[in-house]
Design a protein that fits this description.
Blueprint lengths: L1 E10 L2 E7 L4 E5 L6 H13 L8 H4 L6 E10 L2 E10 L5 E4 L2 E2 L12 E4 L11 H15 L1 H23 L10 H37 L6 E6 L7 H7 L1 H7 L10 E6 L2 E2 H4 L2 H23 L4 E5 L7 H9 L6 E5 L14 E6 L2 E4 L7
Parallel strand pairs: 3-13, 3-14, 8-12, 12-13
Antiparallel strand pairs: 1-2, 1-4, 4-5, 5-6, 6-7, 9-10, 10-11, 14-15
Helix pairs in contact: 3-4, 4-5, 5-6, 5-9
Length: about 375
């Protein structure tokens, strides 16, 4: 899979941008807050329909504009694709594939496979469960359309049930309708939990040797799904917790409360791992993710590295750079000196200055 071109219109700090790419490794360098990350964000939007930052559509539209457009051209197994995303401040985004509008954003998933790696990912182990759930969901949504459907339906049911829990305060008779939502929530929730477990089992097979290599054979990592409730018991648990949920006005059990457990020799790395251990696990997790995507799609995903190199020591940098040899990679950094020459081949270099992109090195601009 190769990204061939990107066009932006009123996206973030870009009034207009049209840029073409070659296979291999592309570097965007420049000072902070110039727009390097915005380019990667636009690419990722064309893969997942979402910002890796969690930004809303209106936040990505250039100031004082009502709309923004992104166009991505790519080639996958020699088949050309064009992805158009139309962001609007007060209406849902529009998405088209090869000029044909799609009704559901999920129809885009699986066409463009990307792995995004940012400094925030290095802290995924010590951050809250929501970040780890998001990691599973974003990856599975690129790989499994059935999962996308189940997740969308689950979230809709969860919103409806939570609203109903609030409404029961004003009308106690509504409690009789809870059972309908409990059943649907349990049905979709069970499918989500089982697929997440399968995903982590597949990921662990790849993660263990990568992590062992990164720790010079001194540690063996294990990952598992940390469920708030067994999938088979979800419906009964919702019923048992009903009065508590009504008092608290929120659904207390289900995959929206679950987590991932990382352990070394039985020790929970989320709570007791050192920062070095947690960052090594995070890097191992990202490298395993790349390998799993390759394995599942029988192709190499596009890798987006956003200012990660400066956060890694030389040893971890080398392990990451070793994974860049097979696919197309986009890297942002503040200076080219961060990337030691001759460690890997750089095919394209662009300098980013105040929302303008220049090919080559060391451009000077007023």
């Amino acid at each position: 899979m190769i990204i061939e071109a990107l066009e932006l219109d009123h996206f973030r700090n870009y009034k207009q941008l049209a840029i073409r790419f070659e296979p291999g490794t592309t570097i965007f360098y420049g000072d902070n807050a110039q727009g390097k990350t915005n380019i990667l964000e636009a690419m990722y939007l064309c893969s997942t329909t979402r910002s890796h930052r969690g930004s809303k559509d209106k936040e990505m539209i250039q100031f004082e504009n009502e709309e923004s457009h992104i166009k991505l051209l790519l080639r996958k197994r020699e088949i050309p694709y064009r992805i158009d995303i139309h962001l609007r401040k007060n209406r849902p985004k529009g998405i088209a594939i090869n000029g044909i509008p799609i009704k559901k954003a999920s129809e885009l998933f699986g066409i463009v496979n990307m792995v995004f790696f940012s400094p925030e990912d290095l802290d995924i182990i010590k951050r809250g469960p929501a970040e780890r759930r998001r990691f599973m969901d974003m990856e599975l949504c690129q790989l499994d359309r059935v999962y996308v459907s189940n997740l969308v339906n689950y979230n809709k049911c969860l919103i409806q049930r939570n609203q109903l829990l609030k409404d029961i305060d004003y009308n106690r008779q509504l409690i009789d309708t809870l059972d309908i939502w409990d059943q649907q929530l349990a049905d979709y929730g069970k499918k989500i939990i089982e697929r997440r477990k399968q995903f982590l089992e597949e990921l662990e097979v790849l993660l263990i040797p990568i992590h062992r290599n990164l720790t010079n054979g001194t540690e063996t990592i294990r990952i598992s799904y940390d469920a708030s409730i067994e999938s088979e018991k979800l419906y009964h648990t919702l019923a048992e917790n009903r009065e508590r949920d009504i008092r608290q006005k929120i659904t207390s059990a289900g995959p929206h409360r679950d987590d991932i457990l990382f352990s070394v020799e039985g020790t929970d790395m989320r709570r007791f791992g050192s920062q070095g251990q947690q960052r090594t696990i995070a890097l191992s997790l990202k490298l395993a993710q790349i390998s799993l995507v390759k394995q599942m799609i029988h192709d190499t995903p596009v890798l987006l590295l956003d200012d990660v190199m400066s956060e890694l020591d030389a040893g971890r940098q080398n392990h990451l750079l070793e994974s860049l040899n097979q696919g197309q990679t986009f890297i942002t950094c503040t200076g080219l000196e961060e990337l030691v020459e001759n460690r890997f081949t750089v095919d394209n270099v662009f300098q980013v200055v105040k929302g303008a992109v220049f090919a080559g090195k060391e451009h000077s601009h007023e």
